[in-house]
Amino acid sequence: MPDQPVHLDLKKDRGLTVAWADGSTSYYSVAYLRRMSPSADMRQLRDEMSRNPLTVLPSRGNAGSTPLAVADAELVGNYAIRLRFTDGHDTGIYSWAYLREIDPEAPKRDAGPGSSSTPG
C-alpha cells in the first residue's frame, strides 16, 4: 500500500521524516505537526482561524520558555503514530493517511517536472 511507511525517522527537536512504500519521502517539522494536529480541539481552532484570521491562539503554560519539541512518540497499531509535545499536547493520533494528506511537500511534488504530461 502506498500509504504505508517503510521507515520513520523522528528527530524530537526538529521533525519527522517518513519514507513511504511508493518510494516518496515526506518531512514534517515539529511546529507543523503541532499546528496540524488531528485532535478535535486543533481542528476546531484551525476552522476558527480560517474564518477569522485574528483568532487568538491559546496559551500553553510555559510553552514560550522552552522550544517546542516532541517529548514522546508511539505507534498506534499499524495505522498511525501518536505524538506527545513538550507543551503538553498529546491528543493527536496521526494516521498514515492523514500524514499523506497534510504533506507540506505534496503540492510541490505534484507540480514538479515529469508529474504532468506536456505536449511534445
Give the mean pLDDT: 84
- What portion of residues is helical? 10-25%
Number of strands: 6
Strand order of the largest sheet: 1-2-3
Topology order in helix (H) and strand (E) letters: EEEHHEEEHH
CATH topology type: NE0471 N-terminal domain-like
Unreliable stretches covering 5 or more consecutive residues: 114-120
Largest sheet: 3 strands, antiparallel
Helix-strand category: alpha+beta
What sort of overall outline do the alpha carbons produce when their principal axes are compared? globular
Number of domains: 1
What does this 3D model show about the protein?
Strand 1 and strand 2 form a beta hairpin. By secondary structure, the protein is of the alpha+beta class. The chain has helices at 30-35, 40-51, 96-101, 106-110, and strands at residues 5-11, 15-20, 25-29, 70-76, 80-85, 93-95. The strands form two sheets. A three-stranded antiparallel beta sheet has the order 1-2-3. It has a three-stranded antiparallel beta sheet with strand order 4-5-6. The relative contact order is 0.18.
Keywords:
4 helices, 120 residues, NE0471 N-terminal domain-like, single chain, 6 strands, alpha+beta, three-stranded antiparallel β-sheet
